[in-house]
Amino acid sequence: MLMMWMCGCYGLVLLVLGVMGQKLPTRDEGLFQMQIRDKALFHDSSVLPDGAEISGYLFRDTPKRYYFVVEEDNTPLLVTLTPCDAPLEWRLTLQELPEDRSGEGSGEPEPLEQQKQQVTANEGTELFTYKGNDVESFISTSSPSGLYQLEIISTEKDSNFKIYSTTTPESDQPYPELPYDPRVDVTTLGHTTVTLAWKPTPTGSIMGQPIQYCVVINKEHNFKSLCAAEAKMSLDDAFMIAPKPGRDFSPFDFVHFGFVPSENDFKDRSLTTNRALSNKMSRTYIPKPKVADIQKICIGNKNIFTVTDLKPDTQYYFDVFAVNTGTNMSTAYVGTFARTKEEAKQKTVELKDGKVTDVFIKRKGSKFLRFAPVSSHQRVTLFIHACLDEVQVQVRRDGKLVLSQNVEGVRQFQLRGKPKAKYLIRLRGSRKGASTLKVLASTRAGGKQPFPALPEDTRIKAFDKLRTCSSVTVAWLGTQERNKYCVYRREVSESYGEEHRRREQNQCAGPESRRKSEKVLCKYFHSANLQKAVTTETITGLEAGKSYLLDVYVVGHSGHSVKYQSKLVKTRKYC
């Protein structure tokens, strides 16, 4: 078994607890420097525990060494190292345990510090070496007793890593086991979605261990470990977490907690040369980069998942990790990549000067319109009639954005013109459903508007006290412009409600779409005083106790009409 040396210290516990909260109390700098030089205040963090995973951090070109002791021959041994940020070089060596030289023959082992000094003087037997960014393991079913040294170095950049070591690999099994086919498959591919599927891990399906799957999506490359993905997502947050007591902690780690020691500090430490030490300790805090292009989603124990809200015609890399929620240790599946389907190129609709164009937009879709006046012009008048829900309108003149607004109902915009200017109009539909619009662009000054003017309130009001068994009385607002108003009625069932009325609320559907039998009357109306621009009408010839849907259409001079909001009324059953 591995022998572990852990030295608890009250002062150390207080320090680590303070660091984990990301805030350190006010301290005396001279006292602090004296304390961190005192080896008695810090345990030997370079000893690997048996059966536990630890996290560590490397400065570039600065090796780090870990030690453990195997006391008995023929002991199974597993050492797994997981690079998180960069490729690592690591080497495992064996130094036989020295014989007890004490005259008393107490049988007590030599202090670890003395054994490490002997290892430094004698390189020992090399058992395993590796260089790369794969998760790699040394495993032996029968290891000799002795002092083992694990040396790690990162030659590319500062890096995080994880180490797991155990003398009982058969019984531990901390990492989830991969299925016989560890690949992640792309089952369906769309413009903005990709569906992934993979075989479940036997650790969860057969052994009953608590397993969840985490999916990582990014645009750069596949990841070989979950800690590599998490390091990419938060390059500096990992450094700011205080290690637990007994887990990879040294005075040099204070630089990660916001301290910037001078190059004269820690002169009595001989881990590196003075020059290397000065370079490392003078590093400044690097702000966290933007990580919007990488995402981690943990989905429980499902082995099918659809990734949504992707960009069309974009290559994405997908990785799946099985995580043992009991040990928080993970295993990577063989990741995959896929390019989403290219969005169909939309045909740009050409607008003719002074002509109304009907436009249909799918739910959450877009349409592009182009207006290129053939003659010089001082201004462009743009009419937008949103027949259903609100739509977003953007206008660019020769590539420059000149208008961006949401439009509901009928709106008119005046745009400043330029010689030979071209206008690109983008219409973005509603999230609720499909949108229909009528659009007109004109450079002609003056003249009558193609669409009738509307009041701010287009509701129809019904007077309950004037309701009879055969008639209802309604009112609606008008404008200062003389327009033609046509009233239509339609009998509806008792179950007809607001949801039905909302679905039929298409302001662009004119009187020509109605049956002649549904027409009540047409009349002209206007008022110079907007405060008095209201008209009433009594609709007769109705049946007792019946429900009717009433519509009012206002018709413009060019024949284009706009419908007011429909009104559901009901006659009295008894009179």
UniProtKB/TrEMBL annotation:
One GO location term (cellular component): extracellular region
Residues covered by the Fibronectin type-III domain: 176-330, 452-561
Keywords associated with the record: Glycoprotein, Neurogenesis, Repeat, Secreted, Signal
Known role: Secretory protein that plays a role in various cellular processes. Acts as a chemorepellent acting on gonadotropin-releasing hormone (GnRH) expressing neurons regulating their migration to the hypothalamus. Also promotes neuron migration, growth and survival as well as neurite outgrowth and is involved in the development of the olfactory system. May also act through the regulation of growth factors activity and downstream signaling. Also regulates extracellular matrix assembly and cell adhesiveness.
Signal peptide span: 1-21
Molecular-function GO terms, alphabetical: heparin binding
Name of this protein: Protein NDNF
Highest rank taxon of the organism: Eukaryota
PANTHER family in alphabetical order: NEURON-DERIVED NEUROTROPHIC FACTOR, PROTEIN NDNF
Localisation: Secreted
Disordered as annotated region, ranges: 99-120
GO BP terms, alphabetized: extracellular matrix organization; nervous system development
Main location: secreted
